[in-house]
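Pasting as-is:
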Amino acid sequence: WPGHVLDLARPGTLDGTTYTPLADVEVHSTVHVMGVVMDKPVVHLPRARAHGGMTDAMVRLAIQPPKPWDGGASLLVMNLFARHLDRLPTHVVRGDALLVRQLQIQAYQGKAHGVGPAFQPYAWAACHAPHHCTASPGTELGAEERAALNAHLDAQGQASGVDLSQLSAEARAVVEKAQADAEAARKEAADAKATANSEREARLTRQ
């Protein structure tokens, strides 16, 4: 893949798709972006509207380039919507690599904010490890995109990787707790998805 994609100096093309560096994202544009997830996403389940129908499911998350690439200066918060929760990346955790295609950039409180509306086509893909990637329904990852996501994982790992054997017992406990929290976040997201699916099936049965 093009080296200039990795240093984020200017836009670069991966498998025919041009990705915009997070530092260059502008309001009132539609972009393809890639970055590292900064924290566990905030998930909103669909709920009944007062006058009938259901709201969309939503996940709010933030991404930034791996710190070795820009020192953590760039950050993009986004809200992704879908009719059903299982179409959203609710399972991602801090440190995962994420790409989003066709993300709308709007202004929110004076800053650029990403939006993926349920009624407009956009796509996402996330990698937790080099051979552990997931994507929105119907989305395919090209070889260059997959390699770039892996490069994000590698760069972030070099910045935050820890050799547990070199830590004190107290520090090791802190790291292990963080790892356990990440796994618990994954389980919580899976439980939320299962609950949403059960509720949807119950509604369909009542209909």
